[in-house]
Amino acid sequence: MRTLADHPLTIMGHDYQPVIIGGMGVDISSTQLACSAAEMGAIGHISDAMSPFVSDKNFGTNFTKRKSDRLRVYADSKDKKDVQFDLADLRSGQMKHVENAMNQKRGEGAIWINIMEKLTMNNPQGTLEVRLNAALDAGIDGITLSAGLHTSSLRLMANNPRFRDAQIGIIVSSDRALKLFLRSGSRVERLPDYIIVEGPLAGGHLGFGEDWPAHSLDTIVADVARLLKAENLSIPIIAAGGIFTGSDALRAVDHGASAIQVATRFTITEECGLPSNVKQEYLRSEEKDVVVNCVSPTGYLMRMLSYSPCLTSNMRPSCEAFGYMLGREGKCQYLDAYDATPLDEKGKKLLVKEKICLCYHFSKFNCYTCGHNVFRLKDTTTKNPDGSYKLLKAQDVIKDYLHNE
C-alpha cells in the first residue's frame, strides 16, 4: 500500500518525514508540539505571535507589564501612535522563545518559526526586522513567512550571518502571490527553500476574499507547480489547509506537493498549548459550528467556531499592554469599532459586533480558530467515561498521516 511515508521531503540537503505541524499562535503550536515532530524526523512550527507575552507566560519575564506601565498614560486616548514596543524587549522575548525551543529539540527533524507580516505592532518594518533577525540569531532551523506578501522581508534579513544557512519559506494562496515574492527574492539573490501553499479550508486567517469557496487546494498546488516548472525552479511545495487523512495527503502529492502542513488535528493533542477545556470545545464541534467571518482587525477573513467567546465581547482595547495589531500611526480596526459602539441605558458599552480585540482574545484562548474539518476530530479518538474525549499523542497523529489512509 502506498503511503505518505514513501515520499520523504528534502530541503537544503536534509531529508525529513513529509509532515509539518503548522504555526498556531499564541503558543498553541507549543515548543513541546514542535519538538515532538522534530524527534520523529518531521518538522514542527512555533509561532512568534505575541512572543514577549509568550515569554512572560513561560519564563517569568515582565515585558507586557513593563510596556503597559510605560504607556498607561495613553489608555484613555484614541490616539495610539506613540504606543510603541521597546525593540530591545521585543528582541529579548523572541530570543528566549526560540532558544527555549532549540535547546529542547531532539532528533533529526527541524523546528521552524511562523512569522506574520500582518503583526504590524505600530512599526511594521522595524518590529518585523527585529523578529526575523532575533529568530535567526537564536538558532531557529527555519523561518516561514506568513500573513502577507513579504516583499521586503528577505531584504530585512539579508545582512544576517545565517541568512543563507537557515531554511526560509513563504505561505502563499496563489501563484500570483508567489510571483511577487520570487521577484523580491531575486533582488537579494535568495530564493525560498520551500513554499507552503495554503488552500481555502485552512484554519485561522485566510488568504482569500469572500469567494473562498470557489478555490481549491489541489488547483492552487498545481498552479504553483506549473509556475515553478516554467521558471525552471526546483523548490518543494508543501500543501496546507483541509488535509485530514493520509489519503488527502497523497492527493496533494499527486498534484505536485512534496509534503503537507497540518494543524487542526494537533489541537487535541496532549502537547498542544490550548487549555484542556478548549480542546474539548474543539472536539464537541459540529459542521454547522464552523464559520468564516470578517471580525479580525487584520482585514483578513478568519475561520473559527461560532461559539468562540471572542464573538460575544465588548472588551476595552488593551493596546498599552499588547498593541500587536496597531498599524502605522496607531490605527486598528477594533479601536474604530469599539469607539463607534454605543452605550446602553446604564452607560455600559454594548456588544462590539464588527471586530474583535485579537490581542486580548488570543492571549486568553477565546478565539477558537480552526480548519474546516474540525468537526471530524471526534472521529479520531474515543470518549472517556465522563463524556469527555481522550486527547491524543502528537506523534501518533503524525504516524497516522504517514502510514494510514
What class, by secondary structure content?
Answer: alpha/beta
Helix content: 25-40%
**Beta-strand proportion:** 5-15%
CATH topology: TIM Barrel
The CATH superfamily turns out to be Aldolase class I
> Would you identify the regions where 5 or more consecutive residues have pLDDT less than 50?
none
Which strand order spans the largest sheet, edge to edge or round the barrel? Answer: 3-4-5-6-7-8-10-11
Number of helices: 13
Mean pLDDT across the residues is: 96
- C-alpha geometry: globular
Biggest sheet architecture:
8 strands, parallel, barrel
The count of β-strands is 13
Please, how many domains?
1
CATH class label: Alpha Beta
End-to-end separation in angstroms reads 9 Å
- H and E order: EEEHEHHHEHEHEHEEHEHEHEEHHH
- Secondary-structure arrangement, i.e. CATH architecture: Alpha-Beta Barrel
Radius of gyration over alpha carbons? 20 Å
Walk me through what this model shows.
By secondary structure, the chain is of the alpha/beta class. It has one domain (4-275, 379-403): TIM Barrel, CATH 3.20.20. The chain is built from 13 helices and 13 strands. It has an eight-stranded parallel β-barrel with strand order 3-4-5-6-7-8-10-11, surrounded by seven helices. The chain has a three-stranded antiparallel sheet with strand order 9-13-12, with no helix packed on it. α1 links the parallel β3 (19-21) and β4 (43-47). The radius of gyration is 20 Å and the shape is globular. The model has no long low-confidence stretch (mean pLDDT 96).
